[in-house]
């Protein structure tokens, strides 16, 4: 059975694309230590054809690059695993995220302590006023003041500071900050229901002002009475004057007996607590517990600890207060409110920890996601954009149809086992799947059916070095030219099949001979030396004195360093007889004169001027030597040209050594030493791979050696670079003729040999 195989370019959009590098990759991956996951690069169309997806990550900008292809495969698999991890991580975050926004409301409604408290802790007055009465100490206040005598119209207030000056007292807690800052204590308004308003009885006076006056009279008569100082503290608490309360309480503590100090301590603690010195107030109340009314002290201390957020201590104090006075409603309500608040805060803290953990997981997820996007960018960096791929498919289908009409096809036959398809030429094969071809697994190329199938076609520039190695291959592998693609310019997209076959027949009836291929000069201006090189080439009209004919002699220049490999090559070239003949390079002469700003200058004067320039210390010597090499190329003296360019290479900075190497390679190319020229150009590419002229020169050397695939690949690299290259544009037509119409030049299969 037979199948028709249509030839085309690049293998784009075919049912089967058996390009050499893809087959080599399959062999390499199959022999690896671990299996590689299958990709979705190939899809089966509705008409049964197998073709590549337009948006496949394996559609590369440089489909010949095996290393990038392998990296792309690794990146695709890595992205798949990373995507699985991101999805699993996102599911975990969503499943464990705390979305309970009504936690506080539900807690207040359902918690038993909250139900018993009826109101949240924040709605309770934790500054509830407390005091210890003088009566609890069996003291009658009216026994210490004169309640019978009439009061004058100008009533006095019991200002304790005016009654007694008390600079310091060991009993007055003057080390506390609240006591030290008593002048600045705040005075929140007292609620009307504060119990302190009901303490001083009307029997002591008709009004609070009258009671204050009678206390003042008592203090004036007895300035050491702790009872009167306590009564004065009560008076000032009613008046809401914290400073005066503290002053009177300090004096009461100073004169009180040990068992009676709790009255003044509770008064002082209430003032400090209301002034937001609750920690100081707790210290004062703890001192009162030693000789106190336990209920009042513990109840006051429970309020203070509740305000400080010390809920365990607060509950303990309320329990002690309830032991002293069981069933006290305010203590019961506050105890349950504290327990309610404590459990709420525990739940909120747990929720906060959960949310913080979720936040950390989200940050880690974002970090991984950013890493995923960076890897995706790496994948897209080498991927062909979809619009360009569609355009290539259109171009391919058009060209394939055109070639089919011109009769460019081949007959392939099925192998004996019907698992292989044998074709004469190494061309992409197009056929429809059906019963006949259902079991075809691979295609073999060549007249001999024993030829190795699916052999990799390596078009990498570095791999071409092996083509010129001294070792010869016993069974050279045919290399397909039609699988090499080129960059399309805007003009090419408008005229998809430029140039036409008829144009190529007229312009290039055959592959140009090596002598017909142009030589080039790589100018240092391409690398930013325009301001340096122009003064060197600025030759005045009277440069040469009459009769002076001294040409540039580079042999007298001392090398800064020597390159061993280049020296070996130069020694080999010395033995080459072809270099002994004078062969002027017309293209080099044209370039030389175009670089001099004086059109009337003769070639002899240019040589004299370059000889003078070599002796100027201010000019970079390697640049002058490079120009001298161009001069001797134009004259046709290869020995002097090689000497100048070798010296220029040795003196040039490393990043600019490719310039003399490229120019030396073009000199060798002019003398027909194509293999040596290609070696120098590959060496130049190792220094700098951004010069189109380097690739263009390399393409000419490969073309002269009949290495068509390597030549087209080098030409393509030259066209890929964005640097302006007029020489590239002039060679574009020849390059595309070789790509579009390989059968016209009988290069369907070209064997590259050393």
Features:
754 residues; mainly alpha; 4 domains; four-stranded mixed sheet; two-stranded antiparallel ribbon; 29 helices; 4% strand; elongated; disordered N terminus; coiled coil; TTC17; TPR_rpt
How would you describe this structure to a colleague?
The structure is a single chain. The strands form 3 sheets. A 4-stranded mixed beta sheet has the order 1-4-5-6. Strands 2-3 form a two-stranded antiparallel sheet. Strands 7-8 form a two-stranded antiparallel sheet. The longest helix is centred in the middle third of the chain and has 54 residues, at 329-382. The chain folds into 4 domains: 42-58 and 384-399, no CATH class; 60-132 and 293-383, no CATH class; 149-267, no CATH class; 524-744, Serine Threonine Protein Phosphatase 5, Tetratricopeptide repeat (Alpha Horseshoe), CATH 1.25.40.10. It has helices at 20-30, 66-96, 103-110, 112-117, 160-163, 177-180, 208-221, 226-239, 242-255, 261-274, 278-288, 294-308, 311-324, 329-382, 386-405, 464-467, 490-494, 501-507, 530-537, 564-574, 586-595, 603-613, 621-635, 638-651, 658-670, 674-687, 692-704, 708-720, 726-740, and strands at residues 2-6, 42-44, 50-52, 409-414, 420-423, 442-445, 479-480, 749-750. The protein is 51% helix and 4% strand. With 754 residues, the protein is mainly alpha-helical. It is elongated, with a radius of gyration of 51 Å. It has 29 helices and 8 strands. The model is unreliable at 1-38, 430-435, 447-496 and 749-754 (pLDDT under 50).
